[in-house]
User: What shape does this take?
Amino acid sequence: KIDSVESRFGDRRCRLTVIGQENEVDVFIDALENCFLTDAELEQWQQGATFEDPWPKKIAKLSQKKTV
Assistant: This one.
């Protein structure tokens, strides 16, 4: 589907292989596609708009204990 759309940013692309039950894969793909910018958001970004970063501000470190 993406291959048929002319790119605004050259030939940038990623390939992702998803393996699983078809209905679970479909749910994952729908969730992933909802992460993409809409055309309106892309236009806003090109005009200098900023967006809230959804990633956590802090990341907890796991214990570095060694087991022998």
Notes: The chain has a mean pLDDT of 81. Residues 20 and 26 are 10 Å apart (CA to CA).
